[in-house]
Amino acid sequence: MLRYLLRITVLILCLVSIYLLSAFCLSRITVNKDVKESDDVTIYIKTNGVHADLVVPVKHGQMDWSRQVKFSNTVLNDSTMQWLALGWGDKGFYLQTPTWADLKFSVAFNAA
Length: 112
Hints:
By secondary structure, the chain is α+β, with helices and mostly antiparallel strands. It has helices at 2-26, 91-96, 105-111, and strands at 44-47, 52-57, 83-87.
């Protein structure tokens, strides 16, 4: 019993050491300091309490989402819109769970 306890202790210490060592080494990776500053982009987060979306301008100096997202695939199908809401996650969970009261175990299980 003492032998297994010692092995578990050594394993935990090794895992913690690997974590700390990797955190130390990876935090030393630098970023490109020569990046030119550009115009700020206003990005909003929209939520209904269940789902969160990133709301970005359709056209900006850094990105033109009208080239990536077809307006025919959006709900309004309106090419004059100036903002685009982007959600992420499981499509079934997003469509079948508009509120927490609508959450079903099967939908959450499939999303997970």
